[in-house]
Amino acid sequence: MEMRLIYPRAQQELDDFRSTSAAVGRLSTLEAFPLHRAAWLGQFLLVQKHLRDGINVDSTLPRSKITGLLYAVDTSQFAVVQLLLSRGASVNKASAGQSTALHILAQKREGKDLQVAIAKALVDAGADRTAKRKEGLTPYWYLITFCANKASEEHRLLFHPGDW
């Protein structure tokens, strides 16, 4: 039985996304990783169940080293991000490409208020704003490059690695 999302608009977006070949490939890949799949889809109760059943909150996909937290941030699943952080997810655990949750969040162009809320949760949990990807780029660089005209002052301050 397939779980449905609570919010109709989110469900419609997910249904539209599932119809693309990239999504179909990703979903089939994630079948073997139920925590990651549930985090990516924003299935809060299912993430909670998997954690209760003993799945490691910091488990990673074999090649990409992506965690459930990185998927939840990538798909802007705020409630799931909060849940994973409350269960001890490593906020600075990076993917194979050295992307942390802040790097991923900084590249999001939509949902500024939601991004600020997620950024606050990550920073409050100890996210390293000075972390560098393998190219030597910080989350702040990604924020300014991808979202320069959409980032509020509060947004910029959350990502900036130093004191202003």
From TrEMBL:
Keywords for the protein's UniProt record, in alphabetical order: ANK repeat, Repeat
Pfam families linked to this entry: Ank_2 (PF12796)
UniProt feature coiled coil, ranges: none
The protein's name: Ankyrin
Keyword Repeat appears in the UniProt entry: yes
One MF term in the entry's GO annotations: ubiquitin-protein transferase activity
GO BP annotations listed: protein K6-linked ubiquitination
Presence of keyword Repeat: yes
Lineage of the organism: Eukaryota, Fungi, Dikarya, Ascomycota, Pezizomycotina
Residue stretches of each ANK repeat: 64-96
